[in-house]
Amino acid sequence: MPEHPDFATSQARHMMQCWSAQAGYAPIPVASTDGCWIETTDGRRIFDLRSAHECINLGFRHPRVLDALKAQMESVVYVTDDFATEPTGRLAQRLAELAPGPAGKRVYFAQSGAAAVEAAIKAARQYQYNRMFHEGGLAHADAPGQYPYPYKIISRYKSWHGSTATAASVSGDPRRWFQEPLTVPGVVFAPEANAFRPPFGTPETFVEENLRYLDHIIENEGGSNKVAAVIVEAVVGSNGIIPPPPGSLEGIRELCDRWGLLMIVDETMSGMGRTGRLFAIEHTSVVPDIIVLGKALGASCPLTAAIFSEKVAASFEHHIFGHGQSYSGHALASAGALAALDVLLEDGFLESVRAKGRHLEGKLRELASRHRCVGDVRGLGLFYTMELVATPDGQEPLRKTTEKYSRTVVKEAAEYLLAEKNIYVPTDKFGIWVVPPLIVTEAEIDWFCEGIDDALTLVDRRLAGG
Prior knowledge:
Elements lengths: L5 H9 L15 E5 L2 E4 L4 E4 L2 H4 L8 H11 L12 H13 L7 E5 L2 H21 L18 E5 L8 H5 L17 E4 L15 H15 L6 E7 L14 H12 L2 E6 L22 E4 L10 E5 L1 H5 L16 H14 L4 H22 L3 E7 L2 E6 L20 H13 L1 E2 L6 E4 L7 H22 L3
Parallel strand pairs: 3-13, 5-6, 5-7, 7-8, 8-9
Antiparallel strand pairs: 1-2, 2-3, 4-10, 9-10, 11-12, 12-14
Helix pairs in contact: 3-10, 4-10, 7-8, 11-13, 12-13
């Protein structure tokens, strides 16, 4: 066996690993990456079936992205936003034009999805403050004698928006519990709209019942006098890759309009072509007030964005936008993002994502028909999961919400895929995560589905007591 490289030992000893106890941290030393693959220093080739935390939609080291980064390094890498650079200005304009709705938007750039969510929520609250106290909204509020201005954010239980203070506080994910009891005040949670596990109602009525309850929450939390915004993921990500049931996002948009709330749509995972559209919200007719982009936007560089609609942006023309970060609008990252956009928007690219997504779905559904442990297959484009269940009726999950960090057979299946099949998937999800880079080939899909087949056989045996 080759000697363990010094850099892996140093990383294991001195770097804090995310969401983990540090004892036993043993990162796999990497020699190189290319396309969908990670090559280790001992010669293993590992397929990255989670696209590096969903950050590399175009795969590792895409040549056009690398060329753009190299060229930009010869001119401007970074300046503050008191100065303008070509890639930053062009990227802001392109995102403003490409996002749903009129093109007069403004874009705030950050370095993580959580930071962009922080900006979105702060902007929503400041927008409502400006509307109330500078634009005469107080006279038309539901309860004008009450204080303060609208500040509450309604989120959903099955959601993840990031690990910074406000982003974690609006997340329904168990990781929020690490923040408690010191969460940011003013957050209320509503049930998610999940066709496989509807919190209430029947398969025929659950969307209508979900929207009726959301309306009930808004009214009882103070309506337009107290509630600032509703935040939703375009496709629920970490908590189960749950595409929106027909009519659900449209219904939320209608409720926000009726109550005077902003609709924030988090596309940190689902954006940048992941679902076969540039924005997942484009599968609907909904035009959000704020869109959050992250992860794959920077095409491997830390770059995220909060895109403010014309209505929201206009609120800050003569009132201060009270937020900022040092590296906002980083020129180098913006150059990489522009190159990635060019690739995604080439004729036929997103169509190919949708076609490969249909091929993937067919393979996964065929596997599900042969394995009793699979309760549901769901997703859009190349954003899929297989929810694993303990009982044939699908009512008992193999990993409950309270078991995210417990050792279950779901974690065993993920570890098996890495150790025995050289397929990397996250170990902390609620099923098998199937999120390959968008450049994946159908042959690679067929290959990793064979590995998933073996992992599901392992789970079936565990359930049978074998």
